[in-house]
Protein 1
Amino acid sequence: MSKVRTRYAPSPTGKMHVGNLRSALYEFLIAKHAGGDFMLRIEDTDQERFVEGATEIIYRTLDKAGLRHDEGPDKDGGFGPYVQSERMKTGIYMEYAKELVEKGEAYYCFCDKERLDSLKTEIVEGKEIMMYDKRCLSLTKEEVEQNLAAGKPFVIRQNIPREGTTTFHDELYGDITVENAQLDDMVLIKSDGYPTYNFANVVDDHTMHITHVVRGNEYLSSSPKYQRLYDAFGWESPVYIHLPLITDENHKKLSKRSGHASFEDLLEQGFVTEAVVNYIALLGWSPEENREIFSLEELIEKFDYRRISKSPAVFDMVKLKWMNGEYFKAMEFGKFYGMAEPYLKEAVHKGYDLEKIAAMVKTRIEILPDIAEHVDFFEAVPDYEVSMYAHKKMKTTPESSLEVLRELLPILEAQEDYSNDALYACLCRYVEEKGCKNGYVMWPVRTAVSGKQMTPGGATELMEVLGKEETVARVRAAIVKLEKGL
Ligand code: GLU
């Protein structure tokens, strides 16, 4: 068996969306699982769709996601050039196109736009396509020579017989057979001399010894034409894996409009790189075991492309957020703090110990922007109703809370050590003297210092961060509020 070689072959036409990254990830995993090579090839033959800066996004995204390529424009592996526009300059595509012309598998076409526009279009698989009527196929060799000598613009088209069928194999879909009458004589070389993607991908995958091709299933309908090219050259086609569509929660195709961002947008929104990669791996693939959290190394070990599903994968934001939260929980604190600090600084301006606050929120947030709502009260106690002091389980009422806070105020004023442990011991002593349950005291204190029903830490943890002066001021203010509110 030859060495497994896969390629990610993006067209530099914009951002890298979730679907693009999934193709790249699966190509990477197939190669690395088998100890093979993963290659990056830039498919820039469609000059009209080229977007400035898109190639840089591709490099950045692969790098951030940890998908290191073994070969590519920046890493020669002996199969270069790795950029199609540069490959074109070597004359490779034209040479192979001419070989097909010689074999009768392709032909020169000189029809101008006007004539092509006048040809009938047909609906194939819901798409309107123009079926070229093969007029130029009947040109004699001399006529072709004359036209070329006269500098007439031309394209080279694939010559597909009108009768018969073509069959190709896909790992997920099995054998697919189509009527040749449905296949148009697609352009291989355009009038600007560039190959079409349709032609270049076949020539490149073969000459670069690619063994497995992973791409979106929008390419399924073109694959019979590619198969005919492989057959015409007498080449063996790679293993094809056409991935199911990724849809949103409403089963609509993912789009920016429906709020589905590119990989970089997701990172900007506060998602963890490894969580996004982990989540994307599961969009259409599932491991044998019932488990969802995988590092990239674990994915390499477990990935078996035969377990990719044919049914559409649903991009579920709720699930991605959950997974992201799991990554925060498991993350080393220093790394988490590095990510959380800008969000904490944005939300808390007073000189509190942000590391302590970060430690409290680490296990409670799903994405970084969640931090703000968890920590806003450190800045200032929000306006709240005194009814918040009533808690059934803790058996507290606004009245009982007022009594507790009044009794505690002098104790808190006298307390010197405002560390969590010392404060906890101090409150417990009071609880014991009063002969009540813990919550009967902790609930009013926590409410008084935070004004919130849910906080990222217990009463004394919050008080440690707030410090003596602020804690006492907040308890005083709570007493006044309760006195007024009752
Ligand atoms: N350049 C194509 C694209 O970006 C790649 C398709 C393929 O992987 O063959 O969609």
Protein 2
Amino acid sequence: MWWPVGVLMRGKVVVKWGGGLITEKNQLCTVNRDVIHDLVETISICHEHDLDVILVHGAGSFGHLRAKQWRLNEGKIDPSNFTPDESCSTQEQAIELVRKDMLTLNSIIMEELTNADISAAVLPPHIWANGTGDNFEGDLTFFANAPEGIVMVTYGDVVSCDEPMGFGILSGDDLVTRLAIEVPNVKRLVFAIGGVDGLLRCPPQRATDDDLIEIWSPNIKFEGEHQQDIDVTGGIGLKAARGAKVADNGIEVMMVSGQHPQRVADACIGVETRGTKVVSNQ
Ligand code: IP8
């Protein structure tokens, strides 16, 4: 008997755990382990609903602070622009340190997955990707061909770039864009974010519960907070833009507060929940 491949394949969800959610963004290499512990449960819920998960996590204080100090998002820069400190004296050393710190953050996530009896495999981008933005080069077939029930994990990282840059920062938001669009059978993309319930009409400090934008498309204005002094990637604005691109391809996109794991789980399995649904321009 012949079956079309799509009939047999389980559906997948691509989930991004924001760096501002899983770490303390202002304190170098400080993890929010309790948040990670609770989020892991949402992956088990996906499995119970016959959905495989591709997990991408952000960097938070394990990536942005040092990457900002050493301007790693700008590529190779004349060394005379930097003042060495006791932990680091060149951009090359900074690259090594950020990659090491990202492996540390990832190992905590892998440990929490293992503790919950979830099998997972990680593919660090500095090993397989080249270039930044959502047209980076890299083979996504390992993510597409993962056996059922195995969570494929990757994250925002310092990657090699063509000369003259030499290196740059590949954001998890660009990774999820390509994974959601190019891996077959992805049903939805879920951004679990920290500090807000979704996209807001005004800055978070002034927002009330009514300021949540429940359905957003690129022609609707919003005021996201982007900590330019800390972030080397695009913050909530990048997530919104990339989300719209994914929605253009017919894939459901939700942004929800990762501090409410039930919302993350509901968004993943396709149950209505509080958050922002991202749609393409009508
Ligand atoms: O937090 C940034 O990834 P993102 C990666 O997903 C680094 O934007 C190393 C700063």
